[in-house]
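New here. Invent one.

***
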Amino acid sequence: MKVYPDDINNEKEEERNVKNTLKNFALNTNIEGINNAGRSREKIRIFAWAVIFIFLLGLTFNDIRQLVDEYLDYPVDVSTTLEHENAIDFPSVTICNKNRVSCKQLKNFLDNDCKANSEFCEHPKQLRALFQLGKCDAKEPEDLPKPAGKSTLTTQTKTIRKKKKPTASKEISKDNIRDNLISKEQSKVFVIEQKFLMTYLELSENEKFLIGHRLRDLIKSCTFRGVDCLETIDAEDENSFFMDYDVIINPNFGNCYNLYTIDDSIGKSSLTGASYGLSLVLNIEQKDYLKGGQTLAAGSRISIQNRKNAPLLDEYGIDIAPNALTSISLQLVNISRHQYSGCTGSSWTDIDSRYQEQL
């Protein structure tokens, strides 16, 4: 194939045109990296600006990739609004005596209902067993039994004693855990409490209530925002009282009374202080406590919660000591979730599965 001089000249002219075009672009463009490289006279400066431009161009593409990935992940936009309420709903207050069974009520129930073969006395054998286990016929509470085993004094040795690490034992099934614990030397206080509790749980709900502390015996005074709530709490006329109560039978505390306001307009709290809240005077009736070691401490147990929630006395209850003035103040922080702003479909079926859980 023959190459004519005119063809060579045309190719060189085209190369010069491309170079001139690129050079003009580099001189006149607003892209800083290319503009600085086009104005540079030295090759090292051209190379440096080219490296900087390529590096920054790579960062730009990386940011674009991250934005696209974030968009495809369907991110959630969270809007938080803080509001201050001038008045809040007064919570419900649950009061319990730390003594599960009242010896006075248990004795009266055995002497009156069980001896007369009343229909309320459904488990006379278990009731008499509770009377014996609780030592309700004793005059003074007995001292708690001491842990079994000999107590010996040991002197501190000067040598370091190293214990051998226990070898890995085989797996123990749940069925064998109870038998293994029984085979150990358990505390007598624990054994007495568990035996009393198992007998107590065999009773009916009505029997548990009748042998427990009564509302009028436990609460001697009750005022809410200056109004005597104890006089109207058992009124037959529903319009004459503003506070009511529910009876809750707790396995550890017996009869518990959950107090709450009936009228929502009255049951609002806007001012702090004992005078504007609920004030109670409690009588724990310590003379009627169980004397067999089942009740380890005197006092009451109180739980405060939302009116719609069940009281969790064992988990969140507060112990109130006798012969003391106790004040409890609360601050409510209510977190509610915003509704959708209309950025999705009109019905739940049109919404993508990623957005079906409403925030």
The CA atoms of residues 109 and 115 lie 9 Å apart. Strands lie at 88-89, 92-97, 219-224, 227-228, 243-250, 254-261, 268-269, 278-282, 300-305, 318-320. The longest strand covers residues 243-250.
